[in-house]
Automatic annotation (TrEMBL), chain A:
This is ABC transporter permease. GO terms for cellular component: plasma membrane. PANTHER family: ABC TRANSPORTER ATP-BINDING PROTEIN, HIGH-AFFINITY BRANCHED-CHAIN AMINO ACID TRANSPORT SYSTEM PERMEASE. One of its GO terms (molecular function) is branched-chain amino acid transmembrane transporter activity. Keywords: Cell membrane, Membrane, Plasmid, Transmembrane, Transmembrane helix.
TrEMBL record, chain B:
It comes from Leisingera methylohalidivorans DSM 14336. The lineage of its organism: Bacteria, Pseudomonadati, Pseudomonadota, Alphaproteobacteria, Rhodobacterales. This is ABC transporter permease. One of its GO terms (cellular component) is plasma membrane. It is found in: Cell membrane. One of its GO terms (biological process) is amino acid transport. It is a multi-pass membrane protein. It holds the Pfam family BPD_transp_2. It comes from the Bacteria. Belongs to the binding-protein-dependent transport system permease family. LivHM subfamily. Keywords: Amino-acid transport, Cell membrane, Membrane, Plasmid, Transmembrane, Transmembrane helix, Transport. The keyword Ubl conjugation does not apply.
Amino acid sequence: MMVTRESLLNWAMIAALLLVPLAAWSLDEPFIITLATKAAILALAGVGLNIALGLGGLISLGHAAFFGIGGYAMGILAAHAQNYEPLFEWPFLFEGSNQMPLIWLTAVVFSALAALVIGALSLRTSGVYFIMITLAFGQMLYYFAISWSAYGGEDGLSIWVRNEFPGLNTLDPIQFFAIAYVILCGALFFAARLARSPFGLALAAARQNEDRVEAVGLTPFTLRLTAFVISGAITGLAGALFADLNRFVSPTMLSWHTSGEIMIFVILGGVGRLYGPVAGAALYIVLEHLLGGISDYWQIFLGVLLLLIVLFARGGLIGAIAGREKAHG
Amino acid sequence: MTYILVLEQILNGLQFGIMLFLMAAGLTLVFGVMGLINLAHGSLYMVGAFAAAAVAGWTGSFLLALIASLAAAAAAGALMELVVIRRLYRRDHLDQVLATFALILIFSEGTRWLFGSFPLFLDVPSYLSGPVTLPGGIEYPLYRLAIILTGLAIAAGLFLLIARTRIGIQIRAGEADREMIAALGVDISKLYTLVFALGAALAGLAGALVGAIQSVQVGMGEPVLILAFVVIVIGGIGSIKGALAGALLVGMTDTLGGVFLPRLFTLFMEPASAASAGASLASMLIYILMAGVLLVRPSGLYGGSA
């Protein structure tokens, strides 16, 4: 493996994301651990989106749908476990759960299914239509969640106790951070392997030249739909973790602002770069924290910064530091 | 359920559809002529509403408020185009989405900074308040009727502008082939600024008109923006005719669905769950409509190739 500036930077980032909360732990600063956990989870959502966006060239402005489905998978299962009411009793008994692995599985399955349906419909179109349709599907679920009074409607669902993971005390910030961090690393590893796999190469080729991919006998639609489903599933998993971090899920997770934010993580870091979402989410959390301390209107600064990056520094943060190398891998 | 209620709701749907058309027309013009996707279009709607509320507060004149909304939104649009948007025409859609998303953050927080987080209220002027009796014995709010008529007049004006005037010819030519009209001596960058400002003014006017029915607040443009996207996706991006058809379709579907679906559900469900199931389905109805249209025509009702 070639050691480039970018790969060094990647290692530095992933190490920093581990070392900062460890240092905070030894200094007994749980708030910083929580910030790091948030960064890791949001980065995971970005890693999911980046598979569609960076690798597949699919500009989805509806990834909040999967993030929110993951969140509601956690909220609904945990709420039923909390009340001892089964979700349904027919055709078979299905009870709520407060076990993270089961919740994650549910989140992944349902967000993947949603991605399959949304992707199959949206991928019939391309370009600006695709952007708007994914946006509209996201809004569809957003409004559905708002009017779904059984699970809190507009007010959302609160969960009193964080869900459990066998052998760990998830209420301890550093242990919950460890879970999020390990999953993020797993997702990064998976995304790197995916990008180099025959599937990933074909997908990237379909992004660059659709006709040639078709000419060698591959179907761009199938490649893209698969990527979209994988992408949605990872973002859904992030949603379940995010809801667990806050012990709260609400329609806000499904709003198009969330889609925009997940996209911002990817772009701030550098689109198409494997570690872009990590850099972006970390930068976003730091900015939110620092600028939020200076001004209530910190989003103006975020907006200006984002604008400057889009207009003048197109490689994002990683691009600015590591130069314009060929990405995603 | 009487026919008066049905007619009233149809008028409400028409009014909503016409508002959506004012939003969607600018969005689709900008996309059709310049190939640019502008998420910040909703911010211009908000700028129009705030300008109107502020001017109405100072002067007490609704007419001046409307003029202020047009002027402020057109100025904000022209400024936006000159400073940011013109750097984005040749970029891909992703850059456009992000830059205009950044503009939303700047506009929303800037407005919050100027006007605070509390909603403002814009009153319906006395000469437009109260109901009016329509033929057939329907009592309908005069203000909403005025919106319908204003909107229809603006729609007609817009069609004339595009079909009959020199500017309209240049706009249509710009849609077809921008190099060619530049070569023919049209100052294309001035044309683009003009089209952008025109779209902005329409959005601002829509914001001011709706501001008197709802409250004027930060973030008010975003739900409307999304509906306007649904409208132009249904109608076919770049087509003004499509925007009108899509806007009326979406306005009617949303209004009638919201009122009648819960009632329809009571026919075969118990009232409480019918109301909630009906309301959930109604809030999703236009997206279902959009998905349906796209299944049959992937580039919209009046769209060319996607």
